[in-house]
Amino acid sequence: MATVTGSGAQPGLADCSPAVATAPAHPPQSVLTDAGDLLRALAAPVRIAIVLQLRAADRCVHELVDALDVAQPLISQHLRVLKTAGVVQGERRGREVVYRLADDHLAHIVVDAVAHVQEGK
């Protein structure tokens, strides 16, 4: 004979109705929009590769070109997108600009996404 939980729900399934009162606050629309913009900035394979490179060390454009085997104008274009989105920051050192990640949160997003895809294969 099956045991019935107090609410009549199937065992192991959460009863959703009481949880509505304790659900976390919904972020403002502006925060959701900004998060979407950030994820779109990270959505290109070359930009993901750039973030992974910058996770290891700060790099200038020519180092990214060599490491990723991508043309310099394309690397510069992707860096511009990442910089506009606040993912990377550049610091001029002589004739070169050295890029670094703005913070570690962004690297975690990319690393977790890559790991998730690799787990499924």
Describe the protein's architecture and organization:
With 121 residues, the chain is mainly α. It has a three-stranded antiparallel β-sheet. The N terminus is likely disordered.
State the end-to-end CA separation: 41 Å
Structural class: mainly alpha
Helix and strand element order: HHHEHHEEH
In the sheet with the most strands, the strands line up as 1-3-2
- Give average pLDDT, whole number: 86
Ranges where pLDDT stays below 50 over 5 or more residues in a row are 2-7
Strand content: 5-15%
Total DSSP E strands: 3
Helix content: 40-55%
Largest sheet: 3 strands, antiparallel
Number of helices: 6
Kindly provide the radius of gyration, computed on alpha-carbon positions and rounded to a whole number of angstroms.
22 Å
Query: Looking at the structure, what is the overall shape?
Result: globular
Short précis:
With 121 residues, the protein is mainly α.
